[in-house]
Amino acid sequence: MSRGFRMKELDLRIYRAAARAALQTGVPVFTHLAVDVEPALAIFAEEGLALDRVLFGHADDGVSQGRVNQEAILAAGGRLGFDTFGYDLELPDPPFWGRHRDERLAHFLGLVRAGHVDRLLASADANCSPLGWPGVKGHTVNYLFEQLIPALHAADIDDDTIHRIFVTNPAGFLAIDR
Fold this sequence. Notes:
Blueprint: H1 9-25, E1 29-31, H2 37-47, E2 54-56, H3 70-75, E3 79-82, H4 101-116, E4 120-122, H5 142-154, H6 159-174
Parallel strand pairs: 1-2, 2-3, 3-4
Helix pairs in contact: 1-2
């Protein structure tokens, strides 16, 4: 996604190519951002790509709030990536895309409780930090296990739902669909 929260011509061409590649290979499509989603939804529909094969990423980051049409994504059958868990404004030196921990969790829980659990994937966007990439101090994938899952339990989310979020949903989404 180009800067400025609007799809540019190059973005549109990349999304079209991604849809065509997904249809040819059976692999899913990950978008980097979930903003300005209407052109993406149109392209995927024109190309005949089922939206359950598309994850609209960073739907939970701090800078995208108010710009994500999650209702359109969910209504079309798409998936939302809550993939910046742990980039909290409570960190000592938070990233500009951070978000208050409680606000992000409330957003996620609202979608879970509204019956959208099968359309949600959750992660920490910290894949390179343990390998020495600079990343954000104090943020690792361990956040999911040390903070998020206990917070879901504290919010009365049962183990079956947590299993769906962290095991069933990713396995189904990442499976090659031919």
